[in-house]
Each structure stands twice: as structure tokens, then as C-alpha cells.
Amino acid sequence: MKKILFIGNSHTYMNDMPELTRQMIENITGEDCQVFMLAYSARTLKWHMEEEYFSERFNILYGHYDYCVIQEYAHPLPDFDDTVKFAHDIIELCKKVNTTPIIFETWSEKEKPENQQEMNRRYRKIATDESITLAPVGEVWSNVLREINDIPGADLYYKDGAHASALGDYLVSMVLAKAITGKLPDSSFKSAYDFTLPDDDWNHVKVEIEDEKVAIPENLVNIIRSNVG
User: Fold this and answer.
1) How many domains does the chain have?
2) CATH of the domain at 150
3) Residue 25's closest CA among 102, 117, 115, 95?
4) Is-above-0.70 flag for pTM?
5) Does the pLDDT value for residue 138 go beyond 90?
């Protein structure tokens, strides 16, 4: 059984993304997988490792995780030196207990696509310098955006133009599942979760998990799969 810890913010918890990733990994491997999450709205890695250090430390050192997915604040990008320092601190904790760290490359805001290149540069540098796995979500996101641009109703973004829609998090989970297993889920895997929330009410999510489930159209599944590879 694999155990995965997700560290991040709303880009991690949106649409129950860790749970969707778990299901994809189980689909790929045929083995049980458990996911755990330390994700808080609008928080940076600096906050995680300063304000919440004891929670992060305890979870990583004693949680017996196989993988730790690390997601930095995205909109706007924080100081790069801070990202490097605090990502490094998390990675070092992971290495002490043989947990494999994965850096989660995020995506630019819908109205600021020019920021993606800098995001890609930052995350690739961290992955290279730390010799860890990169989950190139932002790069795949950009490529898929170009392909679905003319498909009615197809949007990777939630209505705020920053977070992921259900389709967007389907893409995120597939990239993460590929980074962890080296494979894609079966082509019949076409479901995701959808936090369709009222405006200005981020706490109003559905209690019944099955009510969140949505089907992803086959043409969009195929586009995402071809870009994740």
C-alpha cells in the first residue's frame, strides 16, 4: 500500500484532488493507496515551515509516507528565494525518512498566461537542483488549453480564473499519478469531483461525496491523456 502526503493550499484541496489522484493510482497499480493532506487556503511553503512547522515535521517524520507532493503558492508567485529555501527544508525532512518528494508545478492565472514560463523555470530549477521528481502540471495545462480553446464548455479553470475546474483537476491528478507511477490510468477512467460553489462561499461543499462526481467527456479525456503522455 502506498501512502501520499499532499502539502499545499487551495490548489491542492480544490475538487478533492488528492482523492482523485488516489483513485487514479489504484486504477493504475491495482494496489491500495492512502492520501493525507496539509492544505490551507492562501498559504505559502514559508507559512507551512514557519507557522505550522511542527505539524509538517511530525507528519513527514512519523507518517511513514512513500511520497510527499509539495505545492507552493501560485497567484502571485512568492519570492523565489523563499520557495527554494522552504521547499528544500521539506525535501530534507522527506529524505531523512526515505519519503520521495515530488514538486507540483502550478499553472498561471487565466488572465496572466505570460506567468507560466516563469513558473516552469522555477519548478524545473528546484527539481534539477534537488534531484527530485517534477510533476509538470503547468506545462501540460498550457498545452491542453491550446487544444480545447475552441471546444464549447471546456475550461480547465474554475469561475475565478485561478483555481482548477473539475476538468482542470482531472488533468492535475493525471499528471501526479503519472509522476508517481510512470503510467496513466485506464482510458475508461472518466470521472472527477466538482466543487461548484456559490459565489463568495468557499465552505459550501457537498457532504455527500457522490453528489460531487462528474463525468469527463471522452474527447477531453483523450486530449489530456495525449498531453500527459
Assistant:
1) 1
2) 3.40.50.1110
3) 102
4) yes
5) yes
